[in-house]
Design brief:
Number of helices: 7
CATH class: Alpha Beta
Strand content: 5-15%
Number of strands: 8
Helix content: 25-40%
Number of domains: 1
Strand order of the largest sheet: 4-3-2-1-5-8-7-6
Shape: globular
Length: 235
């Protein structure tokens, strides 16, 4: 399990968080004031982006520190409205040190169309993300149905698609959370091309091959089994 950042490292962590915000904007995964980024500090605290900021414009002194109830402890701006989603993610995943939410267009477009993004389209994605990236039914952001569904899904998965609302990922650090979102969008783009070329079947994996890849995932210290979960996921 990765440990939350030591508060004495706050200045460097702020620089890192701002850099990943810029990457989200550079890739076109956020627009206007969309998206939000947070990471754990020590002693039950989070470092997070403020509300009403373009991710291209966020600077280190704009970032906020809040506790795990969402109460702002430091910072001059207000917390973002979807902070409850991040809090639910950290509650469901004590191992998670970072949470990213953005609107990568292709993956989000798949959710609007009601089409799943399949990790089994390429073998490597199964090791990185597991057997699927679940798409959660639309619910108003921050509502109890949204929080309950997110918590249940993140207990088993590292990335989820929120129907008509984008992608949310967790990670042991900001980089891992970002790379998981990158992979979800990359898979969606590949599958869009495959569909444009006439493909209807996205996976070539047999059940046996899938199970072998999932064993490799667990061996790499990834997935629910590495956190002690057994049985079948609810989704």
């Amino acid at each position: 399990m990765s440990r939350p950042a030591d508060p004495v490292l706050l200045p460097s962590l702020k620089r890192e968080l701002v850099a990943w915000c810029q990457k989200l904007w550079d890739r076109g995964w956020v627009a206007n004031h969309d998206g939000n980024v947070s990471c754990r500090l020590g002693a039950g605290k989070l470092l997070c982006t403020p509300t009403a900021f373009s991710k291209a414009a966020v600077r280190e002194d704009d970032l906020l520190v809040c506790d795990l109830t969402g109460k702002k402890l430091q910072g001059r701006w207000n917390t973002f409205g979807e902070l409850k989603l991040h809090l639910a993610a950290y509650k469901a995943r004590p191992d998670a040190v970072a949470v990213l939410h953005a609107h990568p267009p292709t993956a989000t477009g798949f959710s609007i169309a009601g089409i799943p993004v399949e990790t089994t389209a390429i073998a490597e994605a199964v090791v990185s993300l597991g057997p699927k990236v679940p798409t959660l039914p639309f619910a108003m952001p921050g509502s109890e149905p949204a929080l309950d569904a997110l918590g249940s899904a993140l207990a088993w998965y590292d990335a989820v698609i929120l129907a008509n609302h984008g992608v949310l990922t967790v990670g042991k650090d900001l980089e891992q959370a970002y790379l998981r979102m990158e992979l979800v969008e990359h898979l969606a783009r590949m599958q869009l091309v495959a569909r444009q070329l006439g493909a209807t079947q996205m996976s070539a994996l047999t059940d046996g091959q899938l199970q072998e890849l999932l064993k490799s995932r667990t061996k790499a210290g990834l997935g629910p089994e590495s956190r002690g979960l057994t049985g079948a996921p609810p989704l």
